[in-house]
């Protein structure tokens, strides 16, 4: 049985993953359901096979869905759905952290 | 055991067997070979893969009936990654299919007995249209941050314009060499397939070009670790231990609109039922125990996952692994106990955990 904090982490991550997958499927017309997309699948190159132009669309997708700013040199963020989710969580945490 | 065509040229190397095929397992020490790929360039004998040629007009239907990927949609000059399954939808081989205009090239890395995969392809090819190139051709892999410089020296600067997952023919002596831009190390990668008649000469030429870039030879053990770090699917690690392509997250290799390939009924049935398990990356705490294959991970007293692939990561300085988790706990960013409820902490992670240097270089702009 998951503890409360543990479950909170899962719920938060699952929420971001769900939003991101739905939006990627819609924007790129991907022939998958959210359940078909593993969070570690490579977004560019192999995996989903998106290209460098698509990378810009992914950035716009993340920025509009989560109200965060993706830095210009963002290749490390764009490797997988999970790395995008890590970025979103880090940005959200930074916004609420005491300065 | 099927022997490597160039096996005699790997004197002093550690030779092992994988599913009835000889492989060059290790040449120097693991970390040296790993560093060659990450920092320079390494040559590896990949002739353990089975390889076939089919005429495109007839080969499309044949391969579409065999593989879950959509072969008809591979554009000219491009390569598709897919797999071969048995009738129960279990993985048999990791496959590349290349569309080289008038011909389709199939490369199979099998986790099943080599002769079984050969028999399945032979039986699928009822008309005998295919040509088995496994014994007649050699396959060499060139991987690393400077791999592009090696193929440029061998075939000219236009190789730099080849996109990832593409194929092109280049002259070598009196023969043609297939150059696949592929690779599963996260760094630049190329596969060279050539007739055996020029195999030794090609090996010598590649060795010389690799040496000029400060590189050397590398065995498949280092490739296993590099694949895991880069979260490239490894049929010999998590593939053979899990077997289920959906649990492994290989849906992207499947055309989900197809229903008539080998193993399709079982795969589609599993998809409709939903997943109860999923593979997730795990990272050990520095200095802590090895994440051994077969080890179990605990949340409290609950046994929630089993390690199915492991590797020491020189880049991360700790053990990295893949584990099959209960679906409700299959998320990155969580802490679990290794081996017992009181065991050392390990954390699930987003894969890949490394940022390959090659991702920061744009070859077509050089």
Task: Describe the 3D structure.
The complex is a heterodimer of chains A (99) and B (366). Chain A has 99 residues and is an all-alpha fold. In chain A, 57% of the residues lie in helices and 0% in strands. In chain A, helix 1 (4-28) crosses helix 2 (52-66) and helix 1 crosses helix 3 (81-96). The longest helix of chain A is centred in the first third of the chain and has 25 residues, at 4-28. Chain A is globular, with a radius of gyration of 14 Å. The N and C termini of chain A lie far apart (36 Å). The relative contact order of chain A is 0.15. The mean pLDDT of chain A is 90. Chain B is of the alpha+beta class and 366 residues long. Chain B has helices spanning 30-39, 56-66, 114-124, 147-155, 199-212, 220-230, 235-242, 264-273, and strands at residues 14-18, 21-26, 42-45, 50-55, 79-85, 91-100, 103-110, 131-132, 137-143, 166-172, 175-181, 189-195, 216-217, 277-284, 296-299, 302-313, 318-326, 335-338, 345-349. Chain B is built from eight helices and 19 strands. In chain B, strand 10 and strand 11 form a beta hairpin. The interface between A and B is medium-sized, with 33 and 33 residues.
